[in-house]
Write a structure and sequence with these properties.
Layout: E1 4-6, H1 15-23, E2 32-33, E3 55-57, E4 70-71, H2 87-105, E5 107-110, H3 113-123, E6 129-132, E7 155-158, H4 167-175, E8 182-185, H5 191-200, E9 207-210, H6 215-224, E10 227-230, H7 239-246, E11 251-254, H8 258-264, E12 268-271, H9 277-289, H10 303-317
Parallel strand pairs: 1-2, 1-3, 3-4, 5-6, 7-8, 7-10, 8-9, 10-11, 11-12
Length: about 325
Protein backbone atom coordinates (compact mmCIF):
# COMPACT_ATOMS: atom_id res chain seq x y z
CA UNK A 1 0.00 0.00 0.00
CA UNK A 2 1.46 3.42 -0.96
CA UNK A 3 2.57 5.46 2.02
CA UNK A 4 1.68 8.79 0.39
CA UNK A 5 -1.77 10.34 0.04
CA UNK A 6 -2.17 13.36 -2.23
CA UNK A 7 -4.82 16.05 -2.00
CA UNK A 8 -6.08 16.04 -5.59
CA UNK A 9 -8.61 18.83 -5.15
CA UNK A 10 -6.31 21.41 -6.73
CA UNK A 11 -7.51 21.05 -10.30
CA UNK A 12 -7.96 23.70 -12.98
CA UNK A 13 -6.31 25.72 -15.72
CA UNK A 14 -4.24 28.34 -13.91
CA UNK A 15 -1.97 28.96 -10.96
CA UNK A 16 -1.70 26.19 -8.37
CA UNK A 17 -4.44 24.30 -10.19
CA UNK A 18 -2.33 24.25 -13.33
CA UNK A 19 0.71 23.17 -11.31
CA UNK A 20 -1.22 20.27 -9.80
CA UNK A 21 -2.59 19.18 -13.17
CA UNK A 22 0.90 19.07 -14.67
CA UNK A 23 2.78 17.53 -11.74
CA UNK A 24 0.59 14.77 -10.33
CA UNK A 25 0.44 12.56 -13.44
CA UNK A 26 4.24 12.77 -13.73
CA UNK A 27 5.08 11.54 -10.22
CA UNK A 28 6.82 8.15 -10.10
CA UNK A 29 6.32 7.69 -6.36
CA UNK A 30 3.36 5.40 -5.61
CA UNK A 31 0.47 7.35 -4.12
CA UNK A 32 -3.26 7.30 -3.53
CA UNK A 33 -5.77 10.17 -3.50
CA UNK A 34 -6.42 11.63 -0.08
CA UNK A 35 -10.10 11.12 -0.81
CA UNK A 36 -11.52 14.34 0.59
CA UNK A 37 -14.30 16.33 -1.03
CA UNK A 38 -15.51 19.84 -0.42
CA UNK A 39 -13.72 23.17 -0.61
CA UNK A 40 -10.04 22.71 0.20
CA UNK A 41 -9.76 26.43 0.95
CA UNK A 42 -12.63 26.58 3.44
CA UNK A 43 -11.38 27.49 6.96
CA UNK A 44 -12.83 24.34 8.54
CA UNK A 45 -11.03 22.12 6.01
CA UNK A 46 -7.85 22.41 8.05
CA UNK A 47 -9.58 20.64 10.94
CA UNK A 48 -10.77 17.60 9.01
CA UNK A 49 -9.52 14.14 9.99
CA UNK A 50 -6.82 12.77 7.69
CA UNK A 51 -4.78 9.55 7.66
CA UNK A 52 -2.13 9.52 10.37
CA UNK A 53 -0.17 6.58 8.96
CA UNK A 54 0.79 8.24 5.67
CA UNK A 55 2.65 11.27 4.43
CA UNK A 56 0.23 13.75 2.89
CA UNK A 57 1.30 15.84 -0.08
CA UNK A 58 -0.48 18.95 -1.29
CA UNK A 59 0.39 20.80 -4.52
CA UNK A 60 -0.75 23.92 -2.67
CA UNK A 61 -0.61 25.52 0.77
CA UNK A 62 -3.65 23.85 2.39
CA UNK A 63 -2.52 22.21 5.61
CA UNK A 64 -4.23 19.86 8.05
CA UNK A 65 -3.89 20.38 11.79
CA UNK A 66 -4.15 16.63 12.44
CA UNK A 67 -1.56 15.57 9.86
CA UNK A 68 1.58 14.20 11.56
CA UNK A 69 3.49 15.06 8.38
CA UNK A 70 2.37 16.92 5.28
CA UNK A 71 4.56 18.15 2.45
CA UNK A 72 3.16 21.47 1.26
CA UNK A 73 3.95 23.51 -1.84
CA UNK A 74 4.17 27.16 -0.83
CA UNK A 75 4.18 28.94 -4.18
CA UNK A 76 4.36 32.35 -2.54
CA UNK A 77 3.39 34.34 0.55
CA UNK A 78 1.09 36.75 -1.25
CA UNK A 79 -1.75 36.22 1.20
CA UNK A 80 0.40 37.64 3.98
CA UNK A 81 0.72 40.87 1.98
CA UNK A 82 -3.01 41.46 1.48
CA UNK A 83 -4.51 44.69 2.88
CA UNK A 84 -5.72 44.87 6.46
CA UNK A 85 -8.11 43.67 7.92
CA UNK A 86 -8.36 40.81 5.39
CA UNK A 87 -4.78 39.87 6.19
CA UNK A 88 -5.69 38.93 9.78
CA UNK A 89 -7.25 35.59 8.85
CA UNK A 90 -4.21 34.64 6.75
CA UNK A 91 -1.77 35.59 9.50
CA UNK A 92 -3.66 33.34 11.90
CA UNK A 93 -3.87 30.45 9.41
CA UNK A 94 -0.19 30.54 8.49
CA UNK A 95 0.95 30.92 12.11
CA UNK A 96 -1.38 28.38 13.73
CA UNK A 97 -1.76 25.80 10.95
CA UNK A 98 0.81 26.06 8.17
CA UNK A 99 3.98 26.79 10.14
CA UNK A 100 3.50 23.94 12.68
CA UNK A 101 2.79 21.45 9.88
CA UNK A 102 5.87 22.52 7.91
CA UNK A 103 8.08 22.31 10.98
CA UNK A 104 6.77 18.85 11.91
CA UNK A 105 7.45 17.62 8.39
CA UNK A 106 10.92 19.15 8.16
CA UNK A 107 10.59 20.12 4.51
CA UNK A 108 8.47 22.31 2.24
CA UNK A 109 8.42 22.86 -1.51
CA UNK A 110 8.33 26.08 -3.50
CA UNK A 111 8.69 27.15 -7.13
CA UNK A 112 11.38 29.84 -7.45
CA UNK A 113 14.49 31.14 -5.75
CA UNK A 114 12.58 34.32 -4.90
CA UNK A 115 9.87 32.37 -3.06
CA UNK A 116 12.46 30.09 -1.47
CA UNK A 117 14.15 33.07 0.18
CA UNK A 118 10.82 34.48 1.37
CA UNK A 119 9.64 31.16 2.81
CA UNK A 120 12.96 30.64 4.62
CA UNK A 121 12.70 34.11 6.16
CA UNK A 122 9.08 33.55 7.18
CA UNK A 123 9.80 30.14 8.74
CA UNK A 124 12.82 31.31 10.68
CA UNK A 125 13.83 27.68 11.21
CA UNK A 126 17.07 26.44 9.68
CA UNK A 127 16.15 22.84 10.45
CA UNK A 128 13.41 22.91 7.79
CA UNK A 129 14.58 22.28 4.23
CA UNK A 130 12.97 24.63 1.70
CA UNK A 131 13.24 23.00 -1.72
CA UNK A 132 12.83 24.95 -4.95
CA UNK A 133 11.29 22.26 -7.15
CA UNK A 134 10.94 24.75 -9.96
CA UNK A 135 8.14 24.90 -12.47
CA UNK A 136 7.61 23.74 -16.00
CA UNK A 137 6.26 25.04 -19.26
CA UNK A 138 4.11 23.17 -21.75
CA UNK A 139 5.66 22.25 -25.08
CA UNK A 140 2.88 24.27 -26.70
CA UNK A 141 4.73 27.47 -25.82
CA UNK A 142 7.47 27.81 -28.42
CA UNK A 143 8.66 30.45 -30.85
CA UNK A 144 7.56 28.66 -34.02
CA UNK A 145 3.83 28.61 -33.28
CA UNK A 146 1.68 30.60 -35.74
CA UNK A 147 0.48 33.90 -34.27
CA UNK A 148 -3.17 34.51 -33.55
CA UNK A 149 -4.82 36.62 -36.24
CA UNK A 150 -5.18 40.32 -35.50
CA UNK A 151 -6.13 43.37 -37.52
CA UNK A 152 -4.04 45.63 -35.29
CA UNK A 153 -1.15 45.11 -32.87
CA UNK A 154 -2.28 44.13 -29.41
CA UNK A 155 -1.04 43.53 -25.87
CA UNK A 156 -1.70 40.29 -24.00
CA UNK A 157 -2.66 39.92 -20.34
CA UNK A 158 -3.13 36.53 -18.66
CA UNK A 159 -4.22 36.23 -15.04
CA UNK A 160 -7.01 37.54 -12.87
CA UNK A 161 -8.18 40.79 -11.30
CA UNK A 162 -6.93 40.25 -7.75
CA UNK A 163 -5.36 43.31 -6.13
CA UNK A 164 -1.74 42.15 -6.38
CA UNK A 165 -2.11 41.68 -10.15
CA UNK A 166 -2.30 45.48 -10.40
CA UNK A 167 -4.31 45.36 -13.63
CA UNK A 168 -5.72 48.88 -13.28
CA UNK A 169 -2.41 50.52 -14.19
CA UNK A 170 -2.41 48.73 -17.56
CA UNK A 171 -6.04 49.54 -18.28
CA UNK A 172 -5.40 53.20 -17.40
CA UNK A 173 -2.28 53.23 -19.61
CA UNK A 174 -4.14 51.69 -22.55
CA UNK A 175 -6.67 54.52 -22.24
CA UNK A 176 -3.81 56.98 -22.88
CA UNK A 177 -2.55 55.17 -25.98
CA UNK A 178 -5.31 55.38 -28.61
CA UNK A 179 -3.71 52.78 -30.87
CA UNK A 180 -3.37 50.21 -28.08
CA UNK A 181 -5.56 47.10 -28.03
CA UNK A 182 -5.64 44.66 -25.14
CA UNK A 183 -6.56 40.98 -25.03
CA UNK A 184 -7.21 39.64 -21.54
CA UNK A 185 -7.44 35.95 -20.61
CA UNK A 186 -9.41 35.96 -17.37
CA UNK A 187 -11.65 33.55 -15.48
CA UNK A 188 -15.12 33.86 -17.00
CA UNK A 189 -16.51 34.97 -13.64
CA UNK A 190 -14.36 38.13 -13.85
CA UNK A 191 -15.42 39.21 -17.33
CA UNK A 192 -18.22 41.43 -16.11
CA UNK A 193 -15.86 43.32 -13.79
CA UNK A 194 -13.29 43.69 -16.58
CA UNK A 195 -15.95 45.04 -18.91
CA UNK A 196 -16.91 47.62 -16.30
CA UNK A 197 -13.27 48.68 -15.98
CA UNK A 198 -12.93 49.08 -19.73
CA UNK A 199 -16.23 50.94 -20.13
CA UNK A 200 -15.40 53.34 -17.30
CA UNK A 201 -12.26 54.36 -19.22
CA UNK A 202 -13.93 54.48 -22.60
CA UNK A 203 -11.83 51.68 -24.09
CA UNK A 204 -14.33 48.80 -24.23
CA UNK A 205 -14.08 48.51 -28.05
CA UNK A 206 -10.30 48.05 -27.71
CA UNK A 207 -10.44 45.33 -25.03
CA UNK A 208 -11.12 41.69 -25.95
CA UNK A 209 -11.87 39.21 -23.17
CA UNK A 210 -10.89 35.55 -23.51
CA UNK A 211 -11.67 32.48 -21.41
CA UNK A 212 -11.43 28.72 -21.59
CA UNK A 213 -8.78 28.39 -24.31
CA UNK A 214 -6.28 25.53 -24.41
CA UNK A 215 -2.49 25.75 -24.36
CA UNK A 216 -2.15 25.66 -28.14
CA UNK A 217 -4.50 28.61 -28.60
CA UNK A 218 -2.95 30.51 -25.69
CA UNK A 219 0.50 30.08 -27.26
CA UNK A 220 -0.82 31.60 -30.49
CA UNK A 221 -2.28 34.51 -28.55
CA UNK A 222 1.07 35.20 -26.89
CA UNK A 223 2.91 34.83 -30.19
CA UNK A 224 0.65 37.30 -31.94
CA UNK A 225 1.03 39.99 -29.29
CA UNK A 226 3.47 42.89 -29.47
CA UNK A 227 4.11 42.31 -25.76
CA UNK A 228 2.63 40.64 -22.71
CA UNK A 229 1.85 42.95 -19.79
CA UNK A 230 2.38 41.64 -16.26
CA UNK A 231 2.13 44.54 -13.82
CA UNK A 232 1.95 42.35 -10.69
CA UNK A 233 3.31 43.74 -7.45
CA UNK A 234 3.67 40.23 -5.97
CA UNK A 235 4.17 36.81 -7.57
CA UNK A 236 5.58 33.49 -6.46
CA UNK A 237 6.71 32.76 -9.99
CA UNK A 238 4.65 34.31 -12.76
CA UNK A 239 3.90 31.51 -15.24
CA UNK A 240 2.39 33.82 -17.90
CA UNK A 241 5.71 35.66 -18.11
CA UNK A 242 7.52 32.39 -18.81
CA UNK A 243 4.94 31.24 -21.33
CA UNK A 244 5.20 34.56 -23.15
CA UNK A 245 8.98 34.61 -23.50
CA UNK A 246 8.96 30.96 -24.55
CA UNK A 247 6.92 32.06 -27.58
CA UNK A 248 9.36 34.90 -28.24
CA UNK A 249 7.10 37.68 -26.98
CA UNK A 250 8.64 40.19 -24.54
CA UNK A 251 7.06 41.09 -21.19
CA UNK A 252 6.40 44.51 -19.67
CA UNK A 253 6.69 44.17 -15.90
CA UNK A 254 7.41 46.08 -12.71
CA UNK A 255 11.07 45.77 -11.73
CA UNK A 256 10.13 45.40 -8.05
CA UNK A 257 8.34 42.10 -8.60
CA UNK A 258 11.35 39.88 -7.97
CA UNK A 259 9.83 36.58 -9.14
CA UNK A 260 8.82 37.96 -12.53
CA UNK A 261 12.17 39.72 -12.91
CA UNK A 262 13.88 36.39 -12.15
CA UNK A 263 11.89 34.71 -14.92
CA UNK A 264 12.02 37.41 -17.59
CA UNK A 265 15.53 38.78 -17.16
CA UNK A 266 16.38 40.88 -20.22
CA UNK A 267 13.54 39.42 -22.28
CA UNK A 268 11.28 42.39 -21.73
CA UNK A 269 11.04 45.85 -20.23
CA UNK A 270 11.33 46.43 -16.48
CA UNK A 271 9.39 49.50 -15.41
CA UNK A 272 10.55 51.51 -12.42
CA UNK A 273 7.09 52.16 -11.03
CA UNK A 274 4.19 49.81 -10.46
CA UNK A 275 1.69 52.68 -10.47
CA UNK A 276 2.98 55.40 -12.81
CA UNK A 277 0.42 55.35 -15.62
CA UNK A 278 2.50 57.63 -17.83
CA UNK A 279 5.50 55.29 -17.60
CA UNK A 280 3.34 52.30 -18.51
CA UNK A 281 1.73 54.21 -21.37
CA UNK A 282 5.16 55.09 -22.75
CA UNK A 283 6.34 51.47 -22.52
CA UNK A 284 3.15 50.26 -24.23
CA UNK A 285 3.51 52.80 -27.02
CA UNK A 286 7.12 51.77 -27.66
CA UNK A 287 6.19 48.07 -27.64
CA UNK A 288 3.52 48.67 -30.28
CA UNK A 289 5.65 50.96 -32.44
CA UNK A 290 8.77 48.78 -32.36
CA UNK A 291 7.74 45.16 -31.75
CA UNK A 292 10.58 42.75 -31.10
CA UNK A 293 11.11 39.06 -30.58
CA UNK A 294 13.08 37.64 -27.66
CA UNK A 295 15.03 34.43 -27.32
CA UNK A 296 13.45 31.76 -25.15
CA UNK A 297 15.33 30.52 -22.07
CA UNK A 298 17.64 27.68 -23.06
CA UNK A 299 16.55 25.27 -20.32
CA UNK A 300 15.40 24.94 -16.73
CA UNK A 301 11.62 24.93 -17.03
CA UNK A 302 10.51 21.35 -17.39
CA UNK A 303 7.51 19.68 -15.73
CA UNK A 304 9.26 16.30 -15.74
CA UNK A 305 12.21 17.80 -13.86
CA UNK A 306 9.87 19.46 -11.35
CA UNK A 307 8.06 16.17 -10.74
CA UNK A 308 11.41 14.41 -10.32
CA UNK A 309 12.46 16.86 -7.60
CA UNK A 310 9.16 16.33 -5.81
CA UNK A 311 9.61 12.56 -6.11
CA UNK A 312 13.02 12.91 -4.48
CA UNK A 313 11.64 14.77 -1.48
CA UNK A 314 8.68 12.41 -1.14
CA UNK A 315 11.07 9.47 -1.19
CA UNK A 316 13.20 11.01 1.57
CA UNK A 317 10.18 11.64 3.77
CA UNK A 318 8.46 8.33 3.07
CA UNK A 319 11.17 5.91 1.86
CA UNK A 320 8.93 2.86 2.24
CA UNK A 321 6.63 4.39 -0.40
CA UNK A 322 9.22 4.16 -3.15
Amino acid sequence: MPQIAIDTRWDGIAGIQRYSREVLPRLKTPWVPLGLDGDHLAPADALRPVPTDRLIYSPGYNAFVRAPRELLTMHDLIQLQTPWPGRAKYLAYYRLVVRPVVRRTGAVLTVSETSKALVEEWLGDASVRVVNAGIGCSDAFRADVPPAPANDPYLMYVGNLRAHKNVAVVVDAVARVPEARLRMLLPAREHEEAQRMAMARGIAPRVELLAGIDDDELARQYRGAAATVMPSTLEGFGLPALESVMTGTPVLFWSGCAAVAETVGDRGTALESATDVDEWATAIRLALESPRRVKAPAAGYDWDATAARIDEVLGELAPSGR
